[in-house]
From TrEMBL:
<dbReference type="InterPro" id="IPR044965">
    <property type="entry name" value="Glyco_hydro_17_plant"/>
</dbReference>
<dbReference type="GO" id="GO:0005975">
    <property type="term" value="P:carbohydrate metabolic process"/>
</dbReference>
<keyword id="KW-0449">Lipoprotein</keyword>
<keyword id="KW-0378">Hydrolase</keyword>
<protein>
    <recommendedName>
        <fullName>glucan endo-1,3-beta-D-glucosidase</fullName>
        <ecNumber>3.2.1.39</ecNumber>
    </recommendedName>
</protein>
<feature type="domain" description="X8">
    <location>
        <begin position="379"/>
        <end position="461"/>
    </location>
</feature>
<keyword id="KW-0732">Signal</keyword>
<dbReference type="GO" id="GO:0098552">
    <property type="term" value="C:side of membrane"/>
</dbReference>
<dbReference type="InterPro" id="IPR017853">
    <property type="entry name" value="GH"/>
</dbReference>
<keyword id="KW-0611">Plant defense</keyword>
<keyword id="KW-1003">Cell membrane</keyword>
<dbReference type="Pfam" id="PF00332">
    <property type="entry name" value="Glyco_hydro_17"/>
</dbReference>
<dbReference type="GO" id="GO:0042973">
    <property type="term" value="F:glucan endo-1,3-beta-D-glucosidase activity"/>
</dbReference>
<dbReference type="GO" id="GO:0006952">
    <property type="term" value="P:defense response"/>
</dbReference>
<keyword id="KW-0336">GPI-anchor</keyword>
<dbReference type="GO" id="GO:0005886">
    <property type="term" value="C:plasma membrane"/>
</dbReference>
<keyword id="KW-1015">Disulfide bond</keyword>
């Protein structure tokens, strides 16, 4: 079987004062130098939720579970403020759509660093270690849309970090999708031909600045997208479908994919390049192979594998420098174009409650739930059993276009609750999203409020949270608009 098919991937994402900043960086670096050489488990913290926990609650959840590293996809000011003084190491992200401006203007690059990095790198501030420059910018489905911006953006940002006296502490990285490389066997790995030149430039830059190569690996997607993919090969418990590659034998997809990247890096002269895993995980809903048991088995197997320092056949005894689980929380507002499972990757549900028993290896046992979550009252909206539902279709469409009904589809945890159950689930999802506004449970008289939990087995009818910060997305957009406005001024587009 072609190893590339086994690894099938998804389509998816002015200067500071010199003296104090240099001193701060040296102090922070010396205090964590021994930690950075060891593999560590971090998490991706995405914000695309319909029911957002307050950033403070999420940071408390991270601290309670001794999660020392977090990867962000943006630079939300409130999220960064909530991380002040937490001691958590942070990777902030620059979205792909911002690369064009940053690549074309050093002033815009300086502005981004000043707004989103330097202002937080103070005593008692945020411990920013990495800046992710784009997210999977070489993804095949982007058709090269962002490719030309990556290296100029990196060069501008590196100079901006130097001007802010942060270049020796904060590292620039470019998270890549595993579709950037290909092979029939791990030992034959190489970068896609059209990417060879730019990846060589990228890896040379990363090597010169002490940055790792960051890659996103998803064995789940290999299984989901290929009916011939052997299920046991996706996990870490042994397989009857091992891949034999010369003297090396691969018993799981992670090792095979990882070593394909090692070979690709060796082919361009950087076989010893440190590698970090930017995203990896297993969803719990929205597909036949996405469930609580599989997610627990995969994630626990991954964690045990990484922390054992077993390594891979091409890098024995060496684990990735960091591994960021995808993800911390479910994100009910994510696009479901790749599949319904996209909204169910969290090791915690949207309200910070652990979905399954998982030991992150930090010496604190199993996952601990978020505390002090401010729920709405315990009431639900369901279909009124005394009504005729012949006209319900339009109401279901409204509810499920607005709220999240992905668990109702084939493979979902609520797929088997029947037609009336589906109606009630959709009504309730909409009702909770509307903060239990009594009018949102009307549906032309077809809905009714109940105080009896209608959940059935693994199908959970949610209750919303009242401390959600519905304006976070607006703040992010506003921050991007402010940045873009001033960047255009620096570029001479606007003149006063």
């Amino acid at each position: 079987m072609d190893f590339r098919n086994r690894m099938k991937r998804r389509s998816r994402s002015v200067a500071a004062a010199a003296g104090p900043m240099v001193l701060l960086a040296l102090v922070m670096w010396s205090s964590v130098a021994t930690v950075m050489v060891e593999a560590a488990i971090g998490v991706n913290w995405g914000m695309l939720s319909m029911h957002k926990l307050s950033p403070k609650t999420v940071v408390d959840l991270l601290k309670e579970n001794k999660i020392r590293k977090v990867k962000l996809f943006d630079a939300d000011p409130e999220v960064l403020r909530s991380l002040r003084g937490s001691g958590i190491e942070v990777m902030v992200g620059i979205p792909n759509e911002m690369l064009s401006v940053i690549s074309s203007s050093s002033a815009a690059s300086d502005l981004w660093i000043r707004q989103n990095v330097s202002s937080y790198m103070v005593k008692g501030g945020v411990d920013i270690r990495y800046i992710a420059v784009g997210n999977e910018p070489f993804l095949t489905s982007y058709s090269g849309q962002f490719q030309a911006y990556v290296m100029p953006a990196l060069l501008n940002l590196q100079q901006s970090l130097a001007r802010a006296n942060l270049a020796g502490y904060i590292k620039l990285v470019v998270p890549c999708n595993a579709d950037a490389y290909e092979s029939s066997l791990p030992s034959q790995g190489s970068f896609r031909p059209e990417l060879t030149q730019i990846t060589t430039q990228l890896v040379s830059f990363l090597n010169s600045n002490g940055s790792p190569f960051v890659v996103n690996i998803y064995p789940f997607l290999s299984l989901y997208g290929n009916s011939d993919f052997p299920q046991d090969y996706a996990f870490f418990e042994g397989t009857n479908h091992a891949v034999v590659d010369g003297a090396n034998t691969y018993s799981n997809a992670f090792e095979g994919n990882f070593d394909t990247l090692v070979s690709a890096l060796s082919r361009i002269g950087y076989g010893q390049m440190p590698i970090a895993i930017g995203e990896i995980g297993w969803p719990t809903d929205g597909a036949v192979s996405a469930n609580l048991t599989a997610a627990r088995v995969f994630n626990q197997g991954l964690i045990n594998h990484v922390l054992s320092n077993k390594g891979t056949p091409l890098r024995p005894g060496t684990s990735p420098v960091d591994v960021y689980l995808f993800s911390l929380l479910d994100e009910g507002a994510k696009s479901i174009l790749p599949g319904n499972f996209e909204r169910h990757w969290g090791i915690f549900s949207f309200d910070g409650q652990a979905k399954y028993a998982l030991n992150l290896g930090f010496g604190n046992g199993l996952l601990k739930n978020a505390k002090n979550v401010d729920y709405l009252p315990s009431r639900w909206c369901v279909g009124n059993p005394s009504k005729d539902f012949s006209t319900v279709e339009s109401h279901l469409k409204l509810a499920c276009v607005t709220a999240d009904c992905t668990t109702l589809d084939y493979g979902g945890s609520c797929n088997g609750i029947g037609a009336k159950g589906n109606i009630s689930y959709a009504f309730n999802s909409y009702y909770q999203l509307q903060k239990q506004d009594v009018r949102s449970c009307d549906f032309d008289g077809l809905g009714m409020v109940t105080f009896l939990d209608p959940s059935v087995g693994d199908c959970r009818f949610l209750v919303g949270i009242s401390d959600s910060d519905a304006t976070t997305g607006c703040r992010v957009s506003a921050a991007r608009l402010v940045f873009a406005f001033w960047a255009l001024i620096f570029m001479g587009v606007f003149v006063f």
